[in-house]
Prior knowledge:
By secondary structure, chain A is α+β, with helices and mostly antiparallel strands. Chain A has helices spanning 8-26, 33-65, 67-110, and strands at residues 115-124, 129-132, 145-148, 151-159, 164-168, 175-180, 188-193, 199-204, 215-218, 230-240, 245-252, 261-265.
Amino acid sequence: MEPSGIRPRDWIVLLALVVLGAVLGADRGVVSKPLTDTVRSVFCGPQGIVNSALVSTGDLFIGIGQAPHLRNRVRELERDRAAAVSQQVKIDELDQENRRLHALLETLRQTPGKPLPASVIAYYPQTLTAMLSVGSEDGVRVGNPVVAPHGLAGIVQLVDRNSCVVLMVTADRFAVGSRVAREGSRAAGVAKGLGGDMLLLDHLSEGADVAVGDKIVTSGVGERYPKGLFVGTVKQVWRDRSYGYMRAWVEPSVQPDALEEAIVLR
Amino acid sequence: MTGMRAAIWIVLVLILGAILNGPLAHRMALFGAAPDLLVIGVACLSLFLGRAAGAVVGFVSGLLMGSLTGEFLGAYAVSRAFGGFVAGWAPRFLLPQLWITGPVVTFLSTLTVDLVFLLIAPQNDLGSWVKLSILRSAYHAGLCVPLYLLLLRSMKTAANR
């Protein structure tokens, strides 16, 4: 530490500076203008360079300084994005449902008798059966055909008060009288489920006019199924030498596991 | 600190302070308090220069600041002259060899600068000004440490020769 004591010189210097400062402050730039102009012109260039350097690297420091805030913001945006994706999935789902219901409505308009719309409550791939949301209270009876917008889906096998079980077309106990829906061909047979993905069009007469791509519809024989319900599309045709008649693989119009709405024909 | 070494430090600190203050200081603002690098430089230098020289350095730094801002030339010059004077007075009461001396003196010097400036150029919102001044003084106290340690080391090197 310096020895204590007051040196007058220091105070005189300070006083002189105060007076000089007061003069500079009072002259309103008349005397000081050359000085201030010079200082500004000298420092303007280096300050510009420093400023450019800071601006160019500024984002980095801002990023570092705001890292916690930016991290939280990123999390918020990720949450928003996840919510938006979820919303989009819902919208897509609703859009698909809307399309299905439109198709169902159209099918309802074109279906003879007293069609009853129903939702699929459950589907059992092991037995190829589905449970619908309508039952005996709605007028559903065993043996009622069930159709979907794309065609024949199955037949009611069991009925409860508020639900029913439908045997799907691909089930191995399912069979329906069918024919080719092509002008010039009246070939008829029986479409059978075999428990797989395809139907077997059996009991076609020898020389029956069946070709790959033909549409197969219900023939109306037996009166259980109305005439003209779309059953499926022929994928392969061959002649069974053992039995002496034609057979064909038919791709069903309705994929059982994709069924969500159906119409029971009462 | 005397002679050529002091002159080099004064020129270096004032020039660098004047160059960096405008582009850098506002980017370093903390809770609304932007540091004044020239005031920090004046406080640290004055500790080693003494009252009279500290006041002159403060005055020059005020002239630089007033010239660059285009306003309050006299107020800047006089307030910083007082700041330098106060900082130059500190070695009578504090040991400059201690690292804590720098921050303490810088804090007091900044408060002095702001107080004198307030007397010359009164502010409308006195409460905010005082709050900001205390904040800035504390900020300066933290920021001065590297420069103060550099000056201290330079002093020791000179003393050992």
